């Protein structure tokens, strides 16, 4: 998927490091309801992949099938080189996951709950449990609240404890389903930092979210889902470049520029004190020539890149 922008139904080119996870024809139905419809998802090793889509788009169901928590109706899943769910015993020790909110014993403290999780980690020696728990609590900012009972935790604190459980030992793959749910701005920044730290050491991260700003801030790749289908996936920068092309023109006479362009049948609007010119049916030289001919001074002109919000709207509109 690295270097490739693809739409649904187009096979991803294998990146140099291979894939940490991929699905082929993945489908899940519940009676007459199709939750996931023929998804071919490819997650390059070492990438931070944002699975983006509105609630009900099939993101969580897809993640559950990746982790072997839900068996597909059709299609195949491969994670860390093993088929799932049959290869779960080989795969899951190398995977940390926070899916659909954490579940812990309400009357145990945060530290006690995390200690129980650590005790069943196959890669964690008994003598290392205390230090591993302390490190994980510190990493998610829960050290001061570690003695408190879980039932008294806020939603954001519960999310942090679930993330701590996922990070008790080094992982090859970390899967986070709506990780900033319930977090305040400071907590959201901490999640971003943790994802960046994981990426810096080569860990593959899959982040499911309906928050476009979070995906744009943290991810290197994106997979866009809507109504159970994967409508696009690829390198985030390349996907943004593939969005609706436009030209951003700086001028002291925005109003005059708008009139000049409209007189030439060129679609334009004012945006943040500049001219935004859609390049669907016109080339940049024609835009500049129209402005200069009308006596409108051009201070700067640069090709604009679509924001993720614009791209998401475009992709989901095309899928309907």
UniProtKB/TrEMBL annotation:
Q: Highest taxon of the source? A: Bacteria
Protein name per its UniProtKB record:
ABC transporter ATP-binding protein
Q: Which residues form the ABC transporter domain?
A: 21-252
Q: Which organism is it from?
A: Saccharopolyspora erythraea (Streptomyces erythraeus)
Family of this protein? Belongs to the ABC transporter superfamily.
Matches recorded under SUPFAM superfamilies: P-loop containing nucleoside triphosphate hydrolases (SSF52540)
Per its UniProt record, what SMART domains does this chain match?
AAA
Q: A Pfam family name for this chain?
A: ABC_tran
What keyword terms does UniProt attach to this protein? ATP-binding, Nucleotide-binding, Transport
Give the matching PANTHER family.
ABC TRANSPORTER, ATP-BINDING PROTEIN
Q: Give one GO molecular function term.
A: ATP binding
Q: Which InterPro entries match?
A: AAA+_ATPase, ABC_transporter-like_ATP-bd, ABC_transporter-like_CS, P-loop_NTPase
